[in-house]
Amino acid sequence: MLTFDELDTESTKNEAPGQEGKDLRVKTSQKRLINCNTVDVNQLMPLKYKWAWEHYLNGCANHWMPTEVPMGKDIELWKSNQLSEDERRVIMRNLGFFSTAESLVANNITLAVFKHVTNPEARQYLLRQAFEEALHTHTFHYIVESLGLNEGEVFNMYNEVKTIQAKDDFEMKLTADMLKEGFTTETFEGAQKFLENLIGYYIIMEGLFFYSGFVMILSFHRQNKMTGIGEQFQYILRDETIHLNFGIDLINGIKEENPDLWSQDFQNHITGLIKEAVELEVQYANDCLPTGILGLSAPMFREYVQYIADRRLERIGINAIYGSRNPFPWMSETIDLNKEKNFFETRVTEYQSASNLKWS
Description:
- The protein is mainly alpha-helical.
- Helix content is 65%, strand content 0%.
- The chain has 14 helices and no strands.
């Protein structure tokens, strides 16, 4: 069998009308993550960025649906008097933040990022991620509906809770810049703005803003409270871990192909955005936890967010700036997909093993 590079030396046999004598095939080496104008269609094979395809396969293997998670115990507990007002506040605040944040990520992928990523295997993953963002929004609707909550109160919280609005506004500015008429990544400034957007959403939104909420909700789950919501947040955390790793690979790949973008001034700018995001997240934690509950306190979240910020900076090649410790070491085990227990113990496991089925 001829390899792709060998095929590249062969004559084109099935030329498109008007393309006589022009080879439409593109070598792997010609693929680029952005600003690749060598083809008019998504030529997936051969793969150049195998990491993108692996992330896509991992996302497919983790497929789940919120309606597969029973909510009976959560409903019973929510309707009882066993939850304090402070505990209810934490749950409501996080439902309010995540319900809009997931849709912002989805909008950014479909309206801004997808257009400018010119590599087909990376686009394949972005399509998968966009579906998962829709799935996560579906999850919060399912939770709100199951608990009989006021839908308007939850889904409009970004307009009425200042600490949620501040985080959403921070992110929406990054999308707005890319939706302006005439925006292109073919200029130096445009390519840097695109890189800023990726860092703002993958590193800050999904890699920083989401993690305080994960700690808060999973702390309930660790104490056998609101276990249905907790299980769904475990699934979301598993998805978000892959989103984060894909984003880091995409960012680092663009840096490698366009080293001039990664100037010291730009790195300082990114560090400044991270610092701003940390303070926004600390304010959010203070709002969610005016008093301590479940062994959690607002000061612990300053340490945690700073610790997470350092890890994110290091993954994209910027020195850590805080040196804070991790006050929630149990989260490291939860995030480590290789060590964590199998959350997908029912129908989700069946999705993962479906490829092994034999049909007669």
